[in-house]
Amino acid sequence: MRTTARLGTLAATGCVLLFATSSALAFGGSAGDLGQQGNFVISNRANLGFSQSFHGGGPTFDVAPELDYFLAPKLAIGGALILHHDDGGSSFGVQPQAAYNVVLSASWSFWPRLAVTLTAGAPGDVSVELSAPFLIHPVQHFFFGFGPALTTDVTPPRGGHVFDALGSAFLIGGYFDS
């Protein structure tokens, strides 16, 4: 009786594993399609963080709708509109950028991006950002990702300090075939 119960449990476990494996293989599979030449990518980065400095700090929030175009296979150029809010107020900016899609598997890719942010205000700010999110492609034409981001201010320092921030960014978007 114990042997029959064990064989039944083993058979049930095997069926579950077979079903799970076939379902996992059906997941995504479009990571390589993102970076095809001529594709347009619409995405949005949303950053929620907390900053602390000698001059104050507090919660920060960024929203950045983006549009990118693949000039060549895997190489995209584009830009974003930036809305930033912190305890000092809100600011608006534009962000030209270049990115590269590195396919890691059928469902995963790596999207390193270099951007220059030009923020309006008096005086305006110029900063450089390098981000490196890992993207998951659960279905064709859709992705989301998360990864580190490093930002440094390149405008002349005010009050003797230069702003450097290490944070993370969440990215969600989709793309249109050429």
Topology (elements, then pairings):
Elements lengths: L1 H25 L4 H4 L5 E14 L2 E17 L2 E12 L2 E12 L1 E2 L4 E3 L2 E7 L5 E7 L2 E6 L2 E12 L10 E13 L2
Antiparallel strand pairs: 1-2, 1-11, 2-3, 3-4, 4-7, 5-6, 6-9, 7-8, 8-10, 9-10, 10-11
Compose a concise summary of this entry.
Helices cover 16% and strands 59% of the residues. The protein is of the alpha+beta class and 178 residues long.
Can you describe what's shown?
- The protein is α+β, with helices and mostly antiparallel strands and 178 residues long.
- The protein has a single domain (31-176), classed as Porin, CATH 2.40.160.
- 16% of the residues lie in helices and 59% in strands.
- The chain contains two helices and eleven strands.
- It has helices at residues 2-26, 31-34; strands spanning 40-53, 56-72, 75-86, 89-100, 102-103, 108-110, 113-119, 125-131, 134-139, 142-153, 164-176.
- Strand 2 and strand 3 (75-86) form a beta hairpin.
- The longest helix has 25 residues, at 2-26.
Task: Name a few traits of the molecule.
single chain; 178 residues; alpha+beta; Porin; 8-stranded antiparallel barrel; 2 helices; 16% helix; 59% strand; disordered N terminus
CATH architecture classification name:
Beta Barrel
Helix share of residues?
10-25%
Annotation field: number of helices: 2
Order of helices and strands: HHEEEEEEEEEEE
